[in-house]
Structures are given as C-alpha cells and as structure tokens.
UniProtKB/TrEMBL annotation, chain A:
Organism: Marinobacter salinus
Localisation: Cell inner membrane
Name of the protein: Branched-chain amino acid ABC transporter permease
Gene Ontology cellular component annotations, sorted alphabetically: plasma membrane
Record's bilayer topology term: Multi-pass membrane protein
Keywords: Cell membrane, Membrane, Transmembrane, Transmembrane helix
UniProtKB/TrEMBL annotation, chain B:
Protein name: Branched-chain amino acid ABC transporter permease
Chief place of localization: membrane
Family: Belongs to the binding-protein-dependent transport system permease family. LivHM subfamily.
UniProt GO BP: amino acid transport
GO molecular function annotation: transmembrane transporter activity
Organism: Marinobacter salinus
Segment forming the signal sequence: none
Amino acid sequence: MRIGDAKQTYEADEAIWTSQTQKLWFALFLLVLLVFPFMANAYLLYLGCLVGIAVISTTGLNILTGFTGLISLGQAGFMGVGGYTVAWFSLNTGLPFPITLLLAGLLAAAVGILVGLPSLRVKGLYLAIATLAASVFLHFIFAEWESVTGGMGGLSLEPAHLFGATFQSDFSMYFIIVPLAVLMVFAARNVFRTRIGRAFIAIRDRDISAEILGIDLLRYKLMSFALSSFYAGVAGGLFAYFYRVVTPESFPLSMSIFYLAAVIVGGMGNLLGGILGAAFMTLIPEILKLLTAALTPFYPNAPVFMSPMLEIIFGALIVGFLIFEPHGLAEIWHRIRRFFSLWPFRN
Amino acid sequence: MDWLFFGEISLAGLAMGGLYALIALGFVIIYKATRVINFAIGEIMMFAAYLFLAFAGGLEMSPWVALPLAVLGGSILGGVIEKVMIRPMLGESPISVVMVTIGIASILVGLVELLWGADPQLLPRFLPREPVFIGEMYLAPKIAYGFLIGAALLILYLLYFRFSRGGVALRATASDQAAAYSMGINVRRVFNLAWVFGSLAASLAGVLVAATGGLSPQFGAIGLSVLVVVIVGGLDSILGALIAGVFIGWLETVAGAYLGGEYRMPATFAVLAVILVIRPYGLFGTHEIERV
C-alpha cells in the first residue's frame, strides 16, 4: 500500500521517477520489449515495428499540439520529408542509416520552422489550415519534382546498413525502431523538465499571458514546430527503411488525421497518452481484421464490411473519447494506477 | 490566347464557384452562430447526395420530389449531429470540437460505404440537357442549371437572415451570445437552427455538385476546397464566403484547365497562404482582439 506521494521539493516534483515501484515496472517493461522479438512471430514483429514508428510520430505531434497548443494537420507531410530525405541520401550517397535518419529529422525540422512561421500571426484553426496548406504543397512537391522524388512511382531504397550489417528483416528493424522510440520519448520527457518545455506549456495555456511573462512567442513556437517535425522526420525515415519504398501516397492527409486522433485518444499533453494512443490506434485495425476473420465462417461477406466499419470505429473513437473521456487513455491508466496505490481506500 | 476557350473555362469555373459559395455559406452560418468549424461539411453534402441517389434511383421517385427530400434529410442529419455530438462539447477547446467534426466525417464515410458500397455512382439525370450558350460560349447545362438553383437558394438565405425573426436571432447570437441570451433568445435553438440551415445549404450543393461530377465515398474531399474558400473570405463573413467562393471556384477551374489537374489544389492553397500572411483573419473576417 502506497497512499499518494507528498512532494516537498521542486526536485521531487520534476523527477522522472516518483517511486521505487515505478522504476521496477519500467525495468520490467524494458525487459518485455527486449524479449518480445525473440518470442513473437513475424506478424507480431511487424506490428511491433509499426507501433514503434507511430509512437515516435505521435510523441512529436504531442509536443506541438498537446503541449504547445498549436494544431497541426501537416504531420504526414513532415514524415514525408523525412521519408524522402532518407530515400534520396541512401540512394545517392550511400550514407549509413544513423546519418540519413539524423538528416531526415533535421530537414523535416527546417521545413517545420518554415511552416511554423505564420504561427505568430495566425492561430487556432487558421494555423491548422496553414499546416494543411503546407502538407498540400509538400504532397505536390513529392509528386511533381521527379528528378529528386521519382514522381508518382516514388523511390525504392536499399535496406539500412551499418558497419557491414544490413537491417532487412522486421526482426532487425525492431532493434532500430524500438530503442529509438524509447530514447525519443525519454528525450521529450526531459524537454518538459526544462525551461523550453515549460515555455511550451505556458504558451498552450494562454499565449498572451506567456508573452507578458517574457516568453518570446515566435521563438518558442518555432522551436516547438522544429522539435515536433524532427520527430516526424525520424518517424518518416524509419517508415521509409521499414517499407523500403516511398511514394507520394505513402503520406496521405488521412495520416495526419490519424496521428491527431492518436494524440487525442491517448491524451493530449501527456507523453504516456501519446504512447498508449499510438499503440491503440495502430492495433485497432488489426483487431478488427482478426474479428472479421473469426466471423467469416458464419457471415461470408463479413470482409466486405470491414473497411467501412473501420472508418466508423475510427470516427466513433475520436468522438467518444472527446465527449466522454477528454483526457484520453492516459486518464484511464491513471485511474487504474490510483486504484492500486490508494487501495484499500476508494478515492 | 484563345479568348473563347478562356471565357468558357471561366464561366464553368464561376458556376462551380457559385456552388462553392453556397457550401461556404453553410459553413459560415454554423461558424458564426456556434463558433464551430465544421470539417464534416463535405461529408454532409455527400450523405445528402447519396440520399438523393436512393430516393431518385433506388425508389424511382421523380427527381423533383427526391431533391427536397434529400435536402431535408441532410438538414435533419445536421440537426441531429448538433444535438448528439456537438452540444456536449460546449465550452471545450476549439481543437477538441474540430476533432469531433473530423470524427463525424469519418463515421459518415463509413456509413455511406456500408449502405451504398465504395464504388463511384452516377446520379439520375434531372437537369435539362439542352446546351446553354452565353454569346458564343458554351456552358455545360448541368453546371448552368446547378448554378441557377444554387443562386436562388443563396438569395433566399440572404433575405431570410436580413428580415426574418430566425435570421435576426441568429445574427444577434453571432454578435453577442450572452446579450442575446438575456434578451430572451433561445440560444440553444439558434445553435440547432444554424446547423440545420448550414447543412441544408450544403446538402443542396451536394446534390448539384454530384449531379455534374458523379458520387463516391471520397466525395467529401470537396470540403477541403471549401475550407480554403472560408479562410480566404473570412470565417465569419457571409459576403466573404460568396466572393471567395466564386473566386476560388474560378481559380481552381482555370488552373486545372491551363496547368493540368494536379495544379488545382496547389493553386488555391497558394492563394490561401498569401491571404494568411496579408490578412490572417481573411478578406472580410472580423479581427478579434484578445485580452488577458
């Protein structure tokens, strides 16, 4: 029994770990992540990699939308920048993947800064539309700048390689994607223990008050855009290495909406929420597929209904969470945790 | 330069723009009264167009019976959406409300696919087929008559908002909610009415647009063009919606004809980007002053 935790210093409030139990569970979680690829079959491994990529991208969007309060409908566009950067550099220069991934993140961040420029003048929905415009332009560039992007056919790339080792299978990709995801979530967690992260949150809560408090709005908003697109770029780069092909259709607008939905379903402005949301939203279609497969013997045309049902469930999840559980899965998780830490008391 | 061709393209574009203006009007009404950006407007259009397909094609009603029924269906849908999903979101952050409408859009796409399948469909013909000539310029009849019907509804709307009780209540609510409330205006009803009227305009436009270009579950993507229209015109300006609607429709068609179909979206979004930099609240939108 562990009833609440009284924090008596700022250090305690800022600490990543609030209790010994938490550390223990986290170590256990890491162990599971490590053992997972050796136990799982090909399908589960594939899903594991997808969830890892989604976690990185969702965390990035969470920094921008959840913590800084700037809505972005351009996440898929930034991921596309990352994907194409990786593809171009690995095709034309043969650089090893850590460098191409870094370049993907940096280039996406640069584009993010450019897209974020209007954010001082416009905000809220006008900004959302501005990011939407950016992703339309990016999509246009992907499709039309044929000498670099390969046009509608896209680019195919060689598997990632480092020190003579090639990362071809899902199994080996897992060991790139998942550690990177853990690392980047941790990095994000630390950002919010610093002055910069605090400034983001102040801007989200009320940007004018933040400005009066001496926060340089443009600078921090652009920083948030850069950081968020960096995450998107890395996620896009991993995406490119994972599927080993990038086309303009790999990063549709619906993907931006998917990540926004993942942030909301998980819990806006909560890193754990981003992780839960990314995993949940990635796995829902798979669960539905399993369900359809189980139903097919009884209802032969069940597969016909799968794709529309997926649309409906996707929409219903967004609407349902926003109306009934606005803080998302993270809040449900906290409630469960509270139950155990307060037990035998109820609240 | 072939002026005749340019004239024909421009005319077709302007007519399409008229329909954009109608949809944008539906958008602006909802925004003005309730401060909700309705990303589901394209899907409401789509739903009404499918209703028309069901009534006129499936049940073989006369198109002139089916059209009002479909539009009515679309407006009821708007009212129901407001009651069930938007009202509980009162007072939440704009991000959340927008995401709810995106969710609604996804639900509607799924429903339509479930009911009518994912394949593109053609609407039964109901507009006159004789080609229309203005001077020497040919204009496709579907577009011309669609524009006329749309324009008629637009004028009705403008008169309604100017002179009727409901229209005055709506404008009062838009300009100051609390004051309107204390003057005895039933604000909840106005919210609902705004959704009904907004969806009505969108539904009619939906049937007309689908009649010219065919219908599929991806039809709702037209909502994106309309978003550009309302942002350029100013989210809360009816006049802005009309002017920007006609302009964006024209620009899109001309860019499509001269540069190729893939330039339609970038051309309009380029205008949008310029407008956002020059006048962030749109050409005719209200500039809100924020205080702490």
